[in-house]
């Protein structure tokens, strides 16, 4: 259970900066950042 929660939280942490970058870099960068933590 804790390991699953940690993995979920780490994905959220990885996602947050990507949202900020999408404002500067465009939707293509956002799409990359969404796909990257999931793979």
From TrEMBL:
Source organism phylogeny: Bacteria, Pseudomonadati, Pseudomonadota, Gammaproteobacteria, Vibrionales
Protein name (record): DUF3265 domain-containing protein
